[in-house]
Amino acid sequence: MKKVAVILILVFNLNLNAQEISVEKSIFGIQVGFGTRAGIWLNNETKLTNSIALRSEIGLENDYTVGTHYEGAGFILQPIVSLEPRYYYNLEKRNSNGKKTNNNSGNYVSVRTSYHPDWFVLNLDDNITKTADLAIVPTWGLKRQIGAHFTYETAVGVGYRVVYVKENSFNGNATNVDEDHSRNQYILHLQLAIGYAF
Length: 198
What we know:
Blueprint: H1 2-20, E1 26-35, E2 37-47, E3 52-63, E4 78-88, H2 91-96, E5 106-116, E6 132-146, E7 150-165, E8 169-170, E9 175-176, E10 181-197
C-alpha cells in the first residue's frame, strides 16, 4: 500500500510539473519593429494549448515590400490587423535547461495572416489611391524576455500577398484604368522587434 501511495504521489507531482510548462494564458503588449516590417503594434497572445498561442495584433507599419502599388511613396504608415497561431516548440527543453519561458520566451513556427485595410495611409499624397492587401506568411521566429517586462523578437518567413487594386486608381506613377483586380506577390518577412509586456 505504501508503494502505491508513493507511486501516486510521484505521478501526481510529474503531472503538476508537466502542466507548468506552458505558454502564458494571456499576454498584452506593445512592440516597435524594424526590418521589412517597421512600425508599432499592440498585441495579445492567448493560450490555445500548452504549446500553441494565438497572437492578435493591430498597429501602424511601413511595409517595405508593398511592391508598386505606392510607387515612390517613401516612408508611409498604414494600419494593419493580423492573426497568427504560434506553435512554441521548445518550452520544455528551455525549462529543463534552466532558461526562462516567461512571456512565451521560446522558438516558434507560425502562419501569419495580416490585412492592411484601405482606411488611410499616413504620409501619402491625397491623390494616391489607398489599396488593401491580405498576406499569409509561414514564419519561424524566436522570442526572449529581458528583465521582468521587456522582450525582443526576431522572425523570418516567405509568403504570399494579394493586393486589391481599384479601378481608376492612381499609385503615384500610373493610373489603373482596368476594372478592379488583384495583384499577387511573393513577399519576404524579416523582423526584429522590441516589446513591453504588461
